[in-house]
């Protein structure tokens, strides 16, 4: 769960919509530090191979059509081969840790 401005946001809800965006193969949504709101949403997207990847604007537009505005990640990046645990689940901690390293908060 991400708490942004006192609002509980569930990344799984956003991921369920994002995975259906044309050109998206896989994704992870998590919270990163924000000075004003405590946390803000970050999405890392893995594009479908063999087809042109969607633009960040395309991803934002798709999410805005299916989610409330405050649930659309402020930061979206594309990555290849999202890190996975032995169980096959995306290892979000590896994605999230660099953002929190100097934030003064233990995870």
Describe this structure in words.
With 107 residues, the protein is of the alpha+beta class. The protein has a single domain (2-99), classed as GMP Synthetase, Chain A, domain 3 (2-Layer Sandwich), CATH 3.30.300. Helices cover 26% and strands 29% of the residues. The chain has helices spanning 11-18, 56-66, 92-100; strands at 2-4, 7-9, 24-34, 38-47, 75-78. A three-stranded mixed sheet has the order 3-4-5. Strands 1-2 form a two-stranded antiparallel ribbon. 24% of the residues are buried.
Summarize the structure.
The protein has helices at 11-18, 56-66, 92-100, and strands at 2-4, 7-9, 24-34, 38-47, 75-78. With 107 residues, the chain is α+β, with helices and mostly antiparallel strands.
Question: Order of strands across the widest beta sheet?
Answer: 3-4-5
Main structural class:
alpha+beta
Radius of gyration: 14 Å
Tell me the CATH architecture: 2-Layer Sandwich
Low-confidence stretches: none
CATH class: Alpha Beta
CATH topology: GMP Synthetase, Chain A, domain 3
Number of strands: 5
H/E series, N to C? EEHEEHEH
Mean pLDDT: 93
* Helicity, as a percent range: 25-40%
Number of domains: 1
Shape: globular
* Number of separate helices: 3
- Largest β-sheet summary: 3 strands, mixed
Q: Classify the beta-strand content into a percent band.
A: 25-35%
CATH superfamily: ANL, C-terminal domain
